[in-house]
Every structure is written in structure tokens, then in C-alpha cells.
Amino acid sequence: MGDSRIFITQAMTLALMASSWSVQAEAEQEIWSYKFAPSYYNNSNQQQAWDMNLRGNYGKHTVWIGHYVQGEDGSTEKFQQTRAGYENAMSMPFGMLVPSVQVATSGFVGGSLTAQVGSLDQYALIGVGRTNLQTYYNLNFDPNDAITVGYARRLPDRSMLTAYYLWDDRLSTSQEVAHLVWRKWINDTQRLTIDMAVKKGRPAAGEAVVNGHIVSIGLDQDQLFFKFALDQKVNFSDVNQIRAVAGVRF
């Protein structure tokens, strides 16, 4: 009950934050758009899991709420967690600044601050993330308490190439991940996304180093989108994971 009360209080705080900018957003004459993404996680030596995530955008503002559930067997208990978050993409003279915050049941609180320095066609990335280290199933699949650097460039064939690298700078796990992401508009209604990553690091300080890779393919078709991913040593654990997402924008 305590965790639920904490989460409700934190979620209400986010709602108050959202209401404070709603009047300004109306003046910008934006409209709400939504994305609903059910996800399925097949784990090699753990119970399967599901996640439901609803994301709303209003101009530069993004809010989301989601619920994750992993089944139980004879050796593990059922785990579930509800989360909510807010993000603001703020235009700056140098490019864009994106602060975000997320709260979840079990007392988790996390946030990040990312800067895009440059133009829409090419920009550098730098970011930092921090959590309060409470229990959380990491659906980012990258270290949360980390620093990120990267570079993105738009190509002449209507594609975008982004390379970024992030590493744990807080918990002495030596976790690091390098991503290469290619997004390509096939036509006006279809977009292909390929994300390849390599990673190494310890599940926790003092434990053995693990190595893995991630291959993810996504397709946007009008309002529908699909994604399939193979993740070796997901979240630096001993689990290999297959992820499948099928969702809709409205």
C-alpha cells in the first residue's frame, strides 16, 4: 500500500506539472497525438513478460503511462510495475534541450537531461541520466545512471544515421553500450528503422563482465508500427530476450 500511495502522489505531481503548461500549449494551437504500444518479451531462462504503454504528445510536451508484468514460476514471484513520465523538448539557440522525469511503483524515480547541439540536419548529442536506485525493470535496455555522447546526420536519401555511446559513470559496473541507428523513409507512409548495438559490463559492481549485442528492426506503416528485437544478455543479465512490439498512433 505504501508504494501505491507514493506512486499516486508522484503521478499527481506530474499531472500538476502538465496542467501548468496546458494553457500555453493551447496558445500554440497544437493538437494531442497518441501512441499505444503493447510489447511482448520472451526470455531464455525467465518467465515471459508483457508491457502496455500509452504515450501522448502535445507540441513539445510528452507524457506517458505504462504497466509491466512478468509471470511467476516455482522459483520466482510475479513482478509488476506501473510507471508515468514527462518530457519537454525545449528549443534553444544551440539546438534543443530535453529534460525528462519518470516515477514508478516500488518508489522508483529517475530523470535525464539531453542536449542536441546543431541543426535539424546534423547535431551532436550529450546527455546524463540519474535514478534513486530503487527497484525498476529497465525498459530502456541501456544503463540509466550513465552519460551519453553521440552524433546524428541526415543523409540525401531521406534517411538519418545516428551513432551514440553511453557508459555507467556512477555504479562501478563498467557497463557501456554503443548504438548505430539508421532510419529511412521508404515513401510518405513507410519508415524503416534498424538499430544495432554492442555492449559489455557487469550486472553489478564486482561481478563478472558479460558481453552481448542487440539487433532491432522497426517498420512504421501509416498509423501502425511494428518492432522486433534480439537482445543478448538483456540489461547485462544472463537472459537472452526476444522483443515484439505492435502498436498504433492516433
Could you characterize the architecture of this molecule?
- This protein is mainly beta.
- The chain has one domain (2-249): monomeric porin ompg (Porin, Beta Barrel), CATH 2.40.160.
- It has one helix and 15 strands, in the order αβββββββββββββββ.
- The protein has one helix at 2-27; strands at residues 32-43, 49-58, 61-70, 79-88, 90-92, 95-104, 108-118, 122-131, 146-155, 159-168, 176-185, 190-201, 210-221, 224-231, 241-249.
- Strands 1-2-3-4-6-7-8-9-10-11-12-13-14-15 form a 14-stranded antiparallel β-barrel.
| Average pLDDT figure | 90
The sequence of SSEs as H and E is HEEEEEEEEEEEEEEE
Shape, per Cα inertia axes: globular
Q: Order of strands across the widest beta sheet? A: 1-2-3-4-6-7-8-9-10-11-12-13-14-15
Percentage of residues in helical conformation: 10-25%
Integer tally of domains = 1
How can the largest sheet be summarized?
Answer: 14 strands, antiparallel, barrel
- Which spans of ≥5 residues are poorly predicted at pLDDT below 50? 15-27
**What percentage of amino acids are in beta strands?**
over 45%
Query: The CATH topology, please?
Result: Porin
Coarse structural class: mainly beta
Q: Tell me the radius of gyration.
A: 19 Å
Cα separation of the termini: 34 Å
Query: How does CATH name the architecture?
Result: Beta Barrel
> What's the CATH class label?
Mainly Beta
By CATH's scheme, which homologous superfamily applies? monomeric porin ompg
Can you count the helices? 1
Tell me the total number of β-strands: 15
